[in-house]
Amino acid sequence: MHLPALVEDYLDDYGKVREFYNGDFREPSAFERQTERVRSRQIARGDLAAILSEQNGSYGCGPETLGAIGRLVRDEACVVVTGQQVGLFSGPLYTIYKALTAIKLADSLNRRGLGSFVPVFWLASDDHDLAEIDHIALIDKDNRIREIRCAAPSRESKAPVSNVPLPPDIGDCLGQLADSTLDTEFKADILGSLSEAYRPGRSYAEAFGRWMTRLFKSRGLVLIDAGHPRLKEMGRDVFYREIADGSPSTRQAVTASERLRQAGYEPQIPLHEGILNQFYVERERRAIQWKDGAFDIKGLPAPVAKETLLGLAKDKPSLFSPNVLLRPLYQDAVLPTVAYVGGPSEIAYFGQLKGVYEAFELPMPVIYPRKSVTIVERKIDHILKKYHLSVPDLWRNAAGAIGDIAKDEIPEAVGQALLLARDHLERDYAGLKAEVLAFDPGLAGSVDLAKGKMNQQLDFMQKKVQQAARKRNDIAIQQLRKAVDNLYPNRRLQERVFNIVPYLIKYGSGFIDQLDRAIDIDGTDHQLLVM
Predict the structure, then answer these.
(1) pLDDT in tens, 183-232
(2) Angle between helical axes of 236-244 and 306-315 (0-180°, round to 10)
(3) Interatomic CA distance for residues 36 and 16, integer angstroms
(4) How far apart are CA 337 and CA 351, in angstroms?
(5) How far apart are alpha carbons 156 and 144 in whole angstroms?
(6) CB of 394 within 8 A of CB of 528?
(7) Residue 528 in 3-state DSSP?
(8) Class of domain 1-266+323-372+503-515
(9) Distance (Å, rounded) from C-alpha 217 to C-alpha 524?
(10) What count of Cα atoms within 13 Å lies in the side-chain half-sphere of residue 304?
(11) What is the pLDDT of residues 20-59, one digit of tens each?
């Protein structure tokens, strides 16, 4: 499993990358320092709690979530944040692992006595890449990798997904999911809850929020829809400063990128001078270019004066949306963030952001690695043990592992025994024929006929062995391909391809509890969970 050098050192040798981050996630003192910085900030906690209560209430949250929101005001709680694009039916498995890591980290910090901490999941609803989120993949009941896609007519649009409604044929996607999975005692309940969340006409963001609330209802996870107009008002200073100071985010990130290259690392985020790291949003997200104090908004006929754009950022911040570089700044402007739970790509791009946070006078959070997991179902574990393979063997060379085991030939020991039998037949019949001819030369034909029949029997036996070998190897190939498809689908980690719903159909809602109990967030190694 290959990781960028920057991420490998972040996980295993933090001293090499310390200058690019704001605290070692292994050190309790890093969380203590960040908690103090966050609590010294002025955040409109009452307004924030009101927005979160409204959003999470609309998703059908439980008392645990409302209690967590209340602690933001009552206890001046800080937050552990994670987030993801609002993928169909919750998207890839790592979305679930992100949420569980954030929940478990917040629980851990609460037990350390540093104060009160709340897990928050940031719905990246401002994103416009519908092709990234409109599908899921699973192993169907015929043991084949299958994709279910819910492409809308506006798939090529640049509209934020918060504005994209689920199409009428979302029911067809649910039907495909039902047809692709085996019937179980849990299936009706899971698909019923899923269809309740994913109704035609709802936005991807709202459906995602309702489904995630269903999955984590008892765990106090707070969801936040980044596209809410009142959140944009709370974060307007980020949009304003990006315009007023001529993209300080780009300048600082460029400097960090140069230092990363000097240290032997490749920056994660490509940077473009003269383009703001935020979009102008009117139905669609439009890039903003700037030069000599004037701004060109892609798709609009005339340039916009700086003063005009600043006025919009101040009075109508909902017209702006951050890109990947500025999104964390917007997030941490509106939330009291102590830690952010991120995957490898996010760990890498935060390495470009320390100076950006300083330029915007915001405390950069501690970056905590989300748990990385491969689920090994027992039937798949049995196949691995049968052929003396490990999951890393499949990661390294899946085709080679299959080829080494499944060879369409007679096993060596059986082949040697057949050759030995033919050799003995030749030698023994030579002596037998000599004795018979000495006794009666007229029996030569009978001796040759008997020998021929015995050779025919050996040929027949060899043919049967070859057929058995091919059948056995066909079974081995089928089983090994099944294991590869389950554990390393399309030569990618399982967590990046498959969706949680088929596992819930198979094992019930308690599957989330199993994951919660089994996942160890204190270790950074990829974890194998045999279920």
Answers:
(1) 999 999 999 999 999 999 999 999 999 999 999 999 999 999 989 999 99
(2) 170
(3) 26
(4) 17
(5) 29
(6) no
(7) strand
(8) alpha beta
(9) 27
(10) 20
(11) 999 999 999 999 999 999 999 999 999 999 999 999 999 9
Determine the Cα–Cα distance for residues 361 and 483; give it in Å rounded to an integer: 50
Q: Are 340 and 346 in contact (CB under 8 A)?
A: yes
Nearest alpha-carbon partner for 365 in 23, 108, 84, 14: 23
Q: How far apart are the first and last CA of the chain?
A: 22
> Does the pLDDT at position 290 exceed 90?
no
Is there a contact between 354 and 333 (Cβ–Cβ < 8 Å)? no
261-289 as b/e: b if 16+ CB within 10 A: eeeebebbbebeeebbbbbbbeebbbbbe
Q: Which tens digit of pLDDT belongs to each residue from 248-278?
A: 999 999 999 999 999 999 999 999 889 999 9
Phi and psi torsions of 43, nearest 5°: -125, 135
User: Which 8-state DSSP code applies to residue 220?
Assistant: T
> Is 426's pLDDT higher than 90?
no
* Predicted structure pTM score: 0.89
For 100-159, how does the pLDDT look when each residue is reduced to its tens digit (9 = 90+)? Answer: 999 999 999 999 998 999 999 999 988 767 888 999 999 999 999 999 999 765 555 677
Q: What is the DSSP string of 36-95?
A: HHHHTS---HHHHHHHHHHHHHHTT--HHHHHHHHHHHHS--EEEEEEE---GGG-BHHH
**If you search the block for the tokens 């080679």, which residue do you land on?**
400
DSSP 498: B
Domain boundaries, the chain: 1-266+323-372+503-515, 378-492
